[in-house]
Amino acid sequence: MSKWLRITASSLLAIMLVLTTVYATTGTASAAALLELKIKKGSTSATINGQKQSIVKPYESNGITMVQLGLFTRAFKAQVKLQENDSIQLLYGKRTLSMTIGSKKAYLNGSTFTLDAAPVMKSGILMVPVRSVAKSIGAKFKVVSGQMIITAAPATTDSSKDKSNHAGKTKVGNSKYQWSINYPNDLMYLGSQSSESATFMDSEGKYYLQISVDPEIASPDEATESDPQDLLDDLVLYAQDAGEMVVDQKAVSSSKGNYAYIISKNSDGILSETRIYTGNGHTYYIFYADSEATSYKDFANKKVTSLLNSFQTSFNSGDKTIEDLASKADSAGTENTLEDSEYGIYMELPSDFTASDSTNDASAKDGSYVSVNVYSAPAGSTLDDWLQKIQGWFADNFNSDAYHNLGSEQKEIAGQTATINKLEYNFGDAWTTEYEVLLQKNGYRYYVEYSTPSDKASKDADFKVITDSLELDFATLEENFGSFAVDYYSQDRSKVTTHTSKVNHYSVQVPRHWTSTDNDYESSYVYFSHTGGSFNISTKTTSSLEKAITQWKATFEGSGDNNVYGVELSEGTPTTFAGVPAYTFTANYPDATHPYTGTYTIFTKGKLTYILSDEVNNANNTPVHQAELAKVLASFQLTS
């Protein structure tokens, strides 16, 4: 369910706008009278043009009062437009305020306008600084006895150009993914992040509709329809994981197709209906949110059911009344972007890439990927220092036959001078080319990494698509963040950390840059990852060193990975380790996807047997790694 539009940034923005900006309002002042909004901090009600109405509770942040953006549409009939890059426009008469979530920087009629605080999304609702936004629409703002009073003269805004324009079309669908649904006159197509989804809202902003397709869940050679109870179980589980309350649910079998639906309420009290269908080798999700619904029974009215029940997992290309969104989504190019307004990141992606829902990276099926990371720069460091650190790290961690430095250059990217570093490496199965874009300013760093198979014909053209479109905003970083960690390549690799185990009676020093995830040092197994491999310590009870070795060697003759990879195990060398008798073994794994080498040290003390294992890709088994491992082994001590 990772492709539900609700979990993508732009869709959250769309839902948030729909559910906070336009409500049916009674008692609106006459055209000649002033419009008025009265609010109190901490109160869940406001007086809007003389009528008391429920609102999202205003709150104070660093002395700035934040309110839901929708109050300005409810009270003053201001108009809201969705824009790209998590930005929105608030229009009131001849005034247009353009804002971006996470940034104080805004534009009023094209001129820079600084907000008192950055707009933020809180529990799915867009909250904005009340005084700044009131000022932007030309309203008067005053505080009387703790109550904020905002007044403005009525303004007319031509919203006709924002209404749906689908003359002669009574249905809408997607020929690529084979679905269709009724297209009421009041429905507006908001666009989509990809051809796999489409979003709509009605002209009054009362409801929101999203249709999303996951082409990977059901394969074409499977049955075209799943059991409706299984579909329902999936929906209920997803809602529970999302913290939503399911208030109605049903599995439906019909001649038009099987499906399941739930009606759920989120933590903000917003009700929505979600349906799931399968067919054509795809899974379809229909999400319908209603800002005015107060009960699950509101979803049973004829307008809602006629719309949702009209959904079909088919598309009749000969029907001239259907508007096909497939060509719109493909030509818009919006599915091939990676953007994060909070970090000031935007780029266009090559056509075969898909952006991640949760991180600033994107990937393609051939293994190519691009990512953007943000770091703090070490004090006094320069781009040249950073480049030397990166090139030095690759030289230290790849053998010369597995790594080639292809050079670097400086180029104007995203409005400033950047360093581009290019290299290629091979873990043992194929060569990979990596392009690294380094930018640094005011103590912050952007690191853009594009990695792709070296034999990909379009790699240089794809990199050009990325760099030509790349936009990075250091001002946003300064506005939203304090200090970040330094990048991986700039870490001090001389630092070590001592770990001890009272239960297993040992201590060991490992490099701090080795990754240790949730290790319990009192357990029988601890694990560290390093470049190209891992190091671990395991303990178990055996009666003698000889028996421990016999049992351990038997694992290399089994049917597991060791057997599959054609392991070549040495006879072993007797030695002394940590003051006790020990054996060391080496093993080669030539048939692994990335051929690697293992080094194993086995010894006993009392009833405990210790096995220290280091496994590393042959490409990364460099003198630097061997020296680092030698220090770790030399630091190991048995304690009483």
Automatic annotation (TrEMBL):
<feature type="signal peptide">
    <location>
        <begin position="1"/>
        <end position="24"/>
    </location>
</feature>
<dbReference type="InterPro" id="IPR036582">
    <property type="entry name" value="Mao_N_sf"/>
</dbReference>
<protein>
    <submittedName>
        <fullName>Stalk domain-containing protein</fullName>
    </submittedName>
</protein>
<dbReference type="InterPro" id="IPR012854">
    <property type="entry name" value="Cu_amine_oxidase-like_N"/>
</dbReference>
<dbReference type="Pfam" id="PF07833">
    <property type="entry name" value="Cu_amine_oxidN1"/>
</dbReference>
<feature type="domain" description="Copper amine oxidase-like N-terminal">
    <location>
        <begin position="48"/>
        <end position="144"/>
    </location>
</feature>
<keyword id="KW-0732">Signal</keyword>
